[in-house]
């Protein structure tokens, strides 16, 4: 596992993440503009910090800006600063983020949301390596590396005339794509443990195998950000510094994905070899996955029921209901308890 810092964890355990990390390190040395793409919540800013910390600029400032969060009337002032008297209330010179990041790195998150009228000014900064403060008549030379990021399809934005094609080619010296969390599932458990450490206040908190399985089988539409929220909720529900499967509560907007991917099936086959592949393909309900995992690990059904925190009668009824709904539950598990 690699972490850029305690404050900015990015786990590289899944082979796809290791490949991305190795590529990012190579790109960091090249000192060219980088565009990071990927869904919301996957850790684009963290990857930008990895690049900065691995570059020759690592001892210089790293300034992160969310372009979508700056009011349109303040974007130019925020990025480029202003001169004294440039407008009412401008009583002194103010440096913009580009100046603050001089000789370092500036990270422009949500670059696809930048107003079209400002894109031309950003393009000029990239071309000329100089900025004009608002109200200034003389340029200020800068040497700032730009890393930008977006979760939208830039090609579509260009077609819709919402994003300048020439700016895209200036920003995309190298494009790095971060996959969603469901596509790099081997990162889930180590990421969860990083967040447990972050929120544990130094206490030793255990994550059970059933809890790990429940996290692994979730589809994570909110990606890493959703995973951290889920772990944070589990701290409210945990007992005796143990986080079990029943302490893992997903947001109702992000229910378990009914289409279990082949990667999940492969993982399940490795950990529960006695289950048939057909059973695993039908196991599109996270509760059923938890129950079957508990049964597989337990010496008898009474122990499995205790592990799940339910009575043996409730366990029997749940298995019967799953069979009635069409799920293939092995009869050794479904017979009378």
What does this structure look like?
- By secondary structure, the protein is an alpha/beta fold.
- The protein has helices at residues 15-30, 44-53, 75-80, 97-100, 116-128, 154-159, 165-171, 188-199, 209-216, 223-237, 262-271, 277-282, 286-297, 301-308, 312-324, 331-334; strands at 34-37, 62-66, 81-82, 94-95, 105-109, 130-131, 140-141, 145-150, 174-177, 206-207, 242-243.
- The strands form 4 sheets. It has a 5-stranded parallel sheet. It has a two-stranded antiparallel sheet with strand order 3-4.
- Strand 6 and strand 7 form a beta hairpin.
- The longest helix is centred in the N-terminal third of the chain and has 16 residues, at 15-30.
């Amino acid at each position: 596992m690699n972490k850029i810092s305690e404050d900015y964890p990015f786990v590289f355990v899944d082979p796809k993440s290791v490949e991305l990390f190795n590529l990012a390190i190579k790109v960091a040395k090249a000192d060219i503009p980088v565009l990071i793409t990927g869904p919301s919540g996957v850790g684009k800013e963290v990857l930008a910090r990895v690049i900065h910390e691995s570059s020759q600029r690592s001892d210089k400032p790293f300034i992160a800006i969310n372009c979508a969060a700056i009011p349109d009337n303040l974007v130019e002032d925020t990025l480029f600063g202003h001169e004294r008297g440039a407008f009412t209330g401008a009583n002194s010179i103010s440096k913009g983020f580009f100046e603050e990041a001089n000789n370092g790195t500036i990270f422009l998150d949500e670059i696809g949301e930048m107003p079209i009228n400002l894109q031309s000014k950003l393009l000029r900064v990239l071309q000329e390596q100089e900025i004009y403060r608002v109200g200034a008549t003389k340029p200020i030379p800068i040497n700032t590396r730009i890393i930008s990021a977006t979760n939208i399809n830039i090609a579509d934005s260009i077609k819709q005339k919402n994003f300048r094609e020439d700016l895209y080619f200036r920003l995309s010296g190298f494009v790095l794509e971060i996959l969603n969390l469901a596509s790099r599932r081997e990162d889930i458990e180590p990421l969860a443990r990083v967040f447990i450490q972050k929120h544990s206040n130094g206490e030793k908190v255990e994550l059970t195998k059933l809890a790990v399985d429940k996290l692994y089988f979730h589809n994570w539409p909110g990606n890493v950000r959703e995973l951290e929220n889920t772990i944070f909720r589990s701290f409210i529900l945990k007992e005796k510094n143990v986080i079990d499967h029943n302490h893992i509560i997903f947001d109702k907007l992000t229910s378990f994905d009914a289409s279990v991917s082949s990667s999940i099936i492969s993982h399940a086959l490795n950990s529960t070899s006695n289950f048939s592949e057909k059973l695993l393909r039908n196991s599109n309900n996270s509760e059923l996955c938890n129950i079957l995992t508990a049964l597989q690990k337990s010496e008898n059904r009474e122990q499995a029921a205790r592990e799940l925190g339910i009575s043996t009668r409730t366990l029997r009824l749940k298995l019967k209901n799953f069979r009635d709904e069409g799920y293939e539950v092995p009869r050794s598990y479904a017979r009378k308890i």
